[in-house]
Protein: diguanylate cyclase
Amino acid sequence: MSVIQQSFFKLHKPLWVLLAIVIPTTILTVASNSTLKNTDAVDWIDCICEGGIAFMTLLWLIATLLSRPKGNVTLLLFFGLSAMHISMLMDFLDEFYRFDSANTWLSAFEAFPAFIGMILMSFAMYFWYQEQQILNFMLLKKERFYREYGLTDFISGLYRAEYMKQQIDKELLALKHHNIPFCIALIDIKEFSVFNEKYGVTKANSLLADVGQIILLNLRDSDLACRYASDRFIVLMPNTNLSTAKQVINQVADRVSNHRPYAQGHLISGSNDVHWLCEQAHKGEQQASLLARINAQLNTQKSAA
Ligand SMILES: Nc1nc2c(ncn2[C@@H]2O[C@H](COP(=O)(O)OP(=O)(O)OP(=O)(O)O)[C@@H](O)[C@H]2O)c(=O)[nH]1
Structure:
C-alpha cells in the first residue's frame, strides 16, 4: 500500500470500520432470516450479474475512500454508494437464500437502500460539481500567479525588463500597422548609490519597493511599469499622446519625490528626487533603438543637471 493510500486509510478510518461492520451485518441478517436454496434452484446467470453489480459498487466505495479527501462530498458518496451496495448485496444473496415468509420485510427492504443511495449520490454529484468549480478557479489563479511571478521583479514588485520589452514590441506593431501612438517614460532615482551606501542594501531595497508601489498607484489602468535596471524604471503608456503622457509622469515623479522614507527612525528628506523623461515612439522604430534613444537622452539630461 502506497504512503498516499495509507494516509487516506487513516483519514477515513471510521468509514472503513463502518463498512467492515455493515457488510457482514447485512450478510448475517439475510442468512439468519431466510433458508438456503438448493443448488439446482440457483439461477447462475443472475448470480454472476447481480454478484458483479454488488462487487462493482464495493469497488467504487473502496476507490472513493482511497482517493477522496475528508468532506461533505466524500460523506455523501460514501453513504450513497454504501446504500446502493447493500441493495445489490441483498439482491445477490437472494439468489442463494429464500426469504422466510415471516420475513417478507426483507424482500420489501431490498430495493429501499438503493433508492436512498441514488438520492444521496445525486446530491454528491451536485456538490462535487460545485467543489470542482472552486478547484478550477483556484488552479487558474495559481497558474496565473506562477506564470506572472516569473516576470516580476522581486524587489520592486513591478514587471521585469524582459516583459516590458515584449510589450513595447507589441505597441510598436500597433503603431506601425494601425497608427496607434504610445509613449514611454524613464524614471531614475537621484543619487541612489549614495542612499545605498549610507543606509544599506535592505533600506535601499525597501526604497525601490516604495517607489515601485508609488509608480503603480499613480498610473492609469492601461499603463504598464517595470524596473528596468538598478534604480531606473520604465512606464509604458499605450494609446497616449505626448502631452497626456507627460502630465501622467509629472504627477508620478512628484509623488515619488515627495515620498520620505525613514531610516533608523529618522525622516530622510530630499533623498529620492528623480530624473525623468517622457518620449513618444517613432513609427518604424525598433524596440532596442527606442530604448537606447531614451536612455541616452536621460543620461544627457542627468549630466547637464
Ligand atoms: N539596494 C540595491 N541597490 C542596487 C540594486 N541594483 C543596483 N543597485 C545599486 O544602485 C546604484 C545605482 O547607481 P547609479 O546608477 O550611479 O545611480 P545614482 O547613484 O542614482 O546616480 P544618479 O542617477 O546619477 O543620481 C549602484 O550603487 C548599485 O549598486 C538593487 O537591487 N538593490
